[in-house]
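User: Run a structure prediction on this.
Assistant: Running it now.
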Amino acid sequence: MKRLAMVAVLLALGVGVLVTTLACARARGSSDDPAHQLSLDASYSGKEVEAAVGSSVTVNLDSNPSTGFRWELAAIGDEKVLQLASQEFRQADVAQPEMVGAAGQEVWTFKAVGEGKTKLALEYSQPWEGGEKAIDTFTATVTVN
């Protein structure tokens, strides 16, 4: 009987430690936590959004680099608020994954580094001299708290 009581006490302590650990981890948050990631697409253009300090802001925009166009960072109003972390092209899922000329999305990831408000602007352009500029644009005002 004493062993059963001791096992129950140890089990209760173990569960308590686990619950406390999980609660602390959730309170701290992480960049992998969906609550700390803001995902935007073209429908957010022209809008205001809010993000927490330390979170990531990802902008997913349709693109087809085989046309010569690509998204370019036109402006980050205040880099003390928002900074570029990465940019990549992701080809759309197609029957032939390496199909030349297939469209996809450009994925721009920004880190919310400090409190404040800043404007973010991207332009879909041909980057060479004489190429068409800003045939499409994406702008958002990001408030970081």
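The first helix runs from residue 2 to 28.
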